[in-house]
Design goal:
The chain is an alpha+beta fold and 502 residues long. It is built from 19 helices and 21 strands. β20 and β21 form a beta hairpin.
């Protein structure tokens, strides 16, 4: 899985979970906290990032519990009294795990507020202590299965996931009653190997289970062999986490990544350093510039290397100006050019987002860049065509399918005496001189209505009332469905008649 996939998935998951998620260095300094822990503790994100895990403990809670969780109980939940910003105390369940990020060891902590749960637990009978041991880990399923596949113990979470009571599960064959038929053979074979110590006792696997209502849930299992006092294997204990929502989210994220990688837009993450070294880039970068993800990630190619030398200073100045304003988080560059690996010049549209740390220092830039070369070429062609039309000696008029004037060129204004503002919105009949019969115009419009070009001479009347003769060509313009959407009138003055209006 790519780094960008893991990072985005981690952020999305931690922002949505109701459990506190923290990351601290080995000295206890927080480097990341999620919104749930901010809400739980009463501190803001910025305030927590200035604190250590030891600052959060209640007054009667020793430092040793934290050190013990780091040194001896990695991955095992411990109960710790913490203190909120308002000085009230709350009991939490913390699971700490060592993770390695960019070669640095950090402690990933999961914090659950179990204050209310603990009050309930303290009132339970002593004969429930064995079951309570399994229930102390919230949101985790526990299933004990003997050598014959019969369920001997489940916890409440398992009942919730399977939508069954304890009596409906215990005593039943796990494989025959709670697994999809197509998975029974594979899971049973795995279980047999586990019981014969042919796999590690804490092997991890994912498989689906069937609930009472017939729904399918995906569960991630950790398995441990159970032995009697003589050391004989009597079954295995499986702790499971319902990851159905997570799996669906992963699939959805993958679809988004696929869409990005198939789209013309390329996603970038640049470090705020000289030459803008690339930290992350989507896989479709090769289609844009010919360089691969590895070319950028290895540092062999920096983004500044792509930018055309004539545009580089201007692009840099845009970055500097926008970065200087702390209120600006996003900005769009004026289109600039890049030079591909094959020395092809392409025009780029670049939407850049500024990434700042808690202190407001810019650490990265995120960019969505897209090849707009074709658009630029089209714009240049259109601009050239517009100049040609504007500078033409011939009169050019464009109307809609009903004959309403939408455009006239300067030659029309000069020939007719009507300005552009006078003409647009009018019908060409404003030029009608009365020198042609109604039958003349009926034949002309009949030809055009049949989608054919019409050509002929027309005596028109200027705004001042004088007449002039034009050789007129009228061409219908069709849409993709063959419907007339525009009429193009091209007219050339043949002679001028300075006849005053009667």
């Amino acid at each position: 899985m790519s780094l960008i996939t893991s990072e985005e998935r981690f952020k999305a998951f931690t922002n949505q979970t109701t459990e506190g998620i923290t990351v601290a260095d080995l000295d206890g300094n927080y480097v990341f906290v999620n919104p749930a822990f901010c809400k739980m503790s009463g501190y803001t994100n910025e305030e927590l990032l200035q604190k250590t895990v030891f600052d959060m403990k209640a007054e009667n809670q020793s430092h040793e519990s934290f050190r013990e969780s780091k040194e001896k109980k990695i991955g095992i939940p411990i109960q710790v009294n913490l203190q909120r910003k308002d000085k009230t105390e709350y009991l939490t369940e913390i699971i700490g795990n060592i993770i390695t990020v960019d070669g640095e060891e950090l402690v990933l902590g999961t914090i659950r507020d179990i204050t209310e749960r603990k009050k309930i637990e303290n009132n339970l009978k002593k004969e429930q202590e064995r079951a309570q041991t399994y229930l102390e880990t919230a949101n985790v399923m526990f299933v004990a299965i003997d050598n014959d596949g019969i369920v001997t113990l489940v916890n409440q979470k398992t009942c919730e996931v399977l939508e069954c009571t304890e009596d409906e599960i215990v005593g039943k064959n796990w494989f025959d009653n709670f697994l999809p038929k197509q998975e029974i053979t594979v899971i049973k074979t795995y279980s047999d190997k586990l019981l014969k110590n042919k796999t590690l006792p804490t092997d991890y696997m994912e498989n689906t289970v069937i609930t009472k209502s017939g729904a399918v849930r995906m569960v991630a299992w950790h398995n441990t062999i159970l032995q009697d006092y003589k050391g004989n294997t009597i079954g295995h204990l499986s702790s499971g986490e319902d990851i159905t929502k997570r799996k669906k989210f992963e699939i959805l994220l993958q679809k988004y990544y696929d869409i990005i990688n198939r789209s013309p837009a390329v996603a970038f993450l640049w470090r705020n350093e000289e030459n803008w070294p690339v930290e992350l880039v989507s896989e479709n970068i090769k289609e844009l510039c010919g360089y691969t993800v590895d070319d950028f990630m290895s540092g062999e190619v920096s983004y500044s290397k792509l930018i055309h030398p004539e545009d580089l200073d201007r692009v840099l100045e845009e970055v500097i100006q926008n970065s200087a304003d702390s209120k600006i988080n996003d900005f769009t560059h004026l289109p600039y050019r890049i030079i591909t690996k094959d020395n092809e010049v392409k025009w780029i549209d670049d939407l850049t987002s500024i990434v700042r740390d808690a202190a407001g220092t810019i650490t990265h830039y995120q960019g969505i860049v897209q090849d707009i070369t074709l658009r630029k070429e089209t714009e240049e062609t259109n601009a050239l065509l517009t100049r040609a039309i504007e500078q033409a000696d011939e009169t050019i008029v464009i109307t809609d399918s009903l004959g309403t004037i939408q455009y006239v060129n300067p030659a029309f204004e000069k020939a007719s005496g009507y300005s552009k503002d006078d003409a647009i919105g009018e019908n060409p009949r404003v030029l009608k001189s009365g020198q042609q019969s109604d039958n003349f115009y009926k034949k002309m419009w009949a030809t055009l209505s049949n989608g054919k070009q019409w050509q002929g001479e027309i005596i028109n009347k200027k705004k001042d009332g004088s007449f002039y003769t034009e050789n007129v060509t009228i061409s219908p313009v069709f849409d993709s469905h063959g419907e007339i959407i525009t009429m193009l009138l091209l007219k050339m003055i043949l002679q001028k008649r300075n006849v005053c209006k009667n």
